[in-house]
Fold each of these.
Amino acid sequence: MYIPVNEVQKHFKSETPMMSNITHKSDQWSPYHDNSGTVLAIGIPGAVLVAGDTRLSNGYNILTRDATKLSQLTDKCVLATAGQYADFIALRKFLQQRLQLYEFQNEVQASTQTVAHLLSRELYSRRFFPYYTFNLLAGLDENNHGVVYGYDAIGSYDQMTYGVQGSGQELVVAVLDNQLKGYNKINKTFPQTQQEILDLILDCFSCAAERDIHTGDNVEILIITPTGTERIVKPLRKD
Amino acid sequence: MLKHLYDTDCVTWSPQGKLFQVEYAMEAVKQGSICLGLKSNENVVLCSLKRQPSELAGYQEKQFKIDDHMAIAIAGLTADARVLCKYMRTECLEYKYTYESHHPVGRLVFKVAEKSQHKTQSGAKRPYGVGLLVAGIDPNGVHLFETCPSGNYYEYKCQAIGSRSQAARTYFESWFHLFEKSTLEQLILHGLSALKKAIMEDEELNERNVEVGILGKNQKFVHLNAQELKDYIAKLETFNANTQIQQE
């Protein structure tokens, strides 16, 4: 039997799929935006170096070339975050407030280990509507040795000697595995001085900026030592 | 006197229009050891004399930081002071969280006063037995406030509260016209000089029983450490209040 043309509609379960009425699940509004970028942190005896690029993007667009992904929480530790910038700001505000309260109550600044655990609990408290943040907490431990803690979005964390998060993570972490741990390295020579580590960090960001569209503009580096914090900003590719 | 007829609780007026319970609370402030504050165009300085309950004990701290831009010195019941201190700190943290800026000083003092007044109008409560000197800096300028158990608050150029504070106030009356333009060091020396007027004959100022806190437009609240206190107390000998310079 044939179906009359004007009765086609009622013989099909749903409307004929035409370009104008195809809707993708991805068109649904999402509370999350990935502002991307890359952050890394390396801990050495006596210091910790934390770096992040300063570009914020949204898809293929650049929102700004000049936003910091690093936040110094105490004299000894810094939070570096890739992911959604709004959630980074909210998380940072919470930690700053909570750590000031800690200081009032305990008359001493929170240690890096304490901050690390506090961050984990705060992330998990939002288990069912997570902070879209991929964090690194870098600081000096009780012996003034540099430590890095890496987190996932819901607060699982572990101590590491170096860590990378963000859109350039895969690109950069492979380089650090090679240079700092000697994986797949034929000539096992490691950077010894702080300056060599600094050069390594700059190289890593330059490499990431080459291949990752979301990384670039500037790299901001904080060097935390027992005597204070130093800040360095270097330019990166702007395309 | 027939005071005892009208002084049982806060909800009874006396025929002379006084609330005796509130007045008694202000007595508690007068019994506390002295603390004073003075300000210039740029800085506020708080000086206090710390009491030692016995030879075996430590010295009771009298100054507490509320936020980077604000601090208090207390006279009276320390336990009540801690409650107010905690309240002020919480308010400042919440304000900073919401507005990303420092809590205006006058506004916070008003909140404390409001809280204090509340305790003076209930049968089941008692007033706070502590007076605060609140030092703070905000976009409106440099401030020094005094709060009372009664719920009143006043702004001052310089003020002293606690026991024998009249002697310090007399010193201030003579010299406060100089404070506006004083440097931080001069301000500290004036404060310590005023404190010296208020101690007993057999007492002396030293780095253990004196507490000095400083605040400035570019200076977060900080206590002077023991060495700095020693140096300033030593400078007191040759400090001339009128010329504000050391004289030989």
Note: The longest helix of chain A spans residues 85-106.
Amino acid sequence: MLGKGLKRKLEQEEENDVMSCPQDASPTCYWLQRQTVLNLSLLKLHSRPGHSDPGLARRVLITNTLRHIQDELRGEGGPIPQPFPSTGAPLGVVDGCRERPADCGVEVQSEGSLTPVSRLEEDRHLLLCLSPSISRQQPPSSSVIKDSFTSALAEIEDLCPTVGITTLFTTEMGRSLTSDPNSRQTHPDLSEMNSGLDSVSSLSDSALSVFGHTPSLLTDFSLDDFLFTEIDSLLFDNVPCGSSLSASSGASKVVSMVTDDLVKTLTGYGNGGTSQSALPSNQTFKLDLNELDHIMEVLVGS
Amino acid sequence: MDGDGEGQSRWCLSQVKGAVDDDVAEADIISAVEFNHSGELLATGDRGGRIVIFQQEQESKSLPQCRAEYNVYSTFQSHEPEFDYLKSLEIEEKINKIRWLPQKNAAHFLLSTNDKTIKLWKISERDKRPEGYNLKEEDGRFRHPSSLTTLRVPVFQPMDLMVEASPRRVYANAHTYHINSISVNSDNETYLSADDLRINLWHLDFTDRSFNIVDIKPVNMEELTEVITASEFHPLQCNTFVYGSSKGSVRLCDMRASALCDQHSKLFEEPEDPSTRSFFSEIISSISDVKFSHSGRYMMTRDYLTLKIWDLHMESRPVETYQVHGYLRSKLCSLYENDCIFDKFECCWRSDDSEVMTGSYNNFFRMFNRDAQQDVTLEASWENGSPGCPLKPWRVCTGSRRKRNEIGVDCLDFSRKILYTSWHPQDNVVALATVNNLYIFQEKPN
């Protein structure tokens, strides 16, 4: 980036091609820059400066930039010849970008590749703290998960039957529930602007689907994420189910109240007559999908 | 304008105010600079809500060499931080704008505003005090009635000059959004205040009412795409004002047309050049400042990369466009990331409207001579050169540095920016603010 007296050498120039690429250069370059701007904009909109009111002018400008990108993506529509797992050369670009997440911000996951552990750690930290600087992964994955929850549940059962479904469930619900109270605390117009953010999440959703991601593929990846992190916290905490859930699902009291209710509802289904201790990691936990659907509907308020 | 062949400009550093160490407290960051109508007083506001007024030395006025000698005249706390309990938000005490009223008597009046509240301050001098009271001793103790044997008339005795600042009016609770501009009308009775979505008209004497004259808030806030960024009254016509928007357009409104000036009388907008279109086109077109010329015939707008001079009779395009720092066009993505792209630069006219000036990064400021069609880049720095020494112009190049006083684009320091500038209303003296220092430059008389 730019700073005091930093001189760029010739060999570093290609790193910065992403930033300085003219618009009429290769479509990959343009796509990369657009993705960068998209991610930056989402990051800026989600980060809250804290106690003082963020400027309306700034938010409007960022939102307009996002809308412009959204319109472009909509205009392109349909199946896009994008650099994706199937093509050769762009894959190199994608992989290169993944190694520099700060610069590139490309969230592409090629088929069959696993998330580096460092990324999992990063996501867990963000997830547990509900910190304002969300990872770029969060907006797309949350909306995708909301959209394809039932299919995801079926996949969860197949993927990892030993981990408690409740923890995943409450974490997800916690996150989607806390987003509302947070926005209401700020400027009322900000909350009105935030409802526009839902369209932005769907923008990233549509952006990802445009880029050829099948929702289930991304869901697999993201759910693995959460499942792995929940295993960690369960193994280390070893406390009764309710308190570990409220610790892991964030600081908001609203969340913990909801999760407590959920836990009572769901453990009644799963554990049957067993004790109220921590979900043993080696116990199979099967839920009635219909019951979950019903609860899901009630909570989401569809 | 560029000076002689040895690379000297006609400008030299006169004074630097403020601490010169690297440790800058947030509260000391200057956020407003404004000369008064005579140029005798120079006011600065900072993020801590304080106002410091400098006064030109009386003796030096007669000596052309030492014309610009300003010393502290008064310091006072204008605004305090507040807390909006309803929205759980802090209201910053940072001074956004200072505007002087034309002087009518011995006292000076100025308007200062933060995000929510405007205040009218009276700055007056006291250099005499009454002495010889009958009922009180000199130290204020009351005299015993039985000790009174004679009567005397109190007389004024000279005392050390004391400058008092007192708030005369507080204009509060009229703005939901952040105030970005205030402008005193030429009728000297009213002024306007503009926030992101509304402009209000006030009478200076009344604090309990203001009239909304522009309202661009949409019914559904999700449809909001444009905000007001700057506004100013015409210097001569008391019914005319302009406001700039975040989309790069300026609207001129006539208050005689209707009470609510949502319909503009003129719309100044330049069609976008499709060859320079980028993701950031809208952001860099956002108007950060709008200033009428002293003549009232022209208007200047500042957006992120350019200065544009408009003839009020022609709405289709500006009559002059000046590139302030066009070399940043290829860096917009990085500037978006570090938020510099949202910096709001001010601009100002010379007294005879022949030159305009604005700030840039790396503590550079740019001066454009409209008549000679020349421009110069100068640096506000107390390290290089001593007061009285003419400044050497700078050049920003895209390649590697070649000569002295050339700097590469990648070496610019984006944390050192000059956002606030003011030109003396009569003399060729300019005042500008770096992060926490006030610089006063003076043009060498030929």
Note: The longest helix of chain A spans residues 188-210.
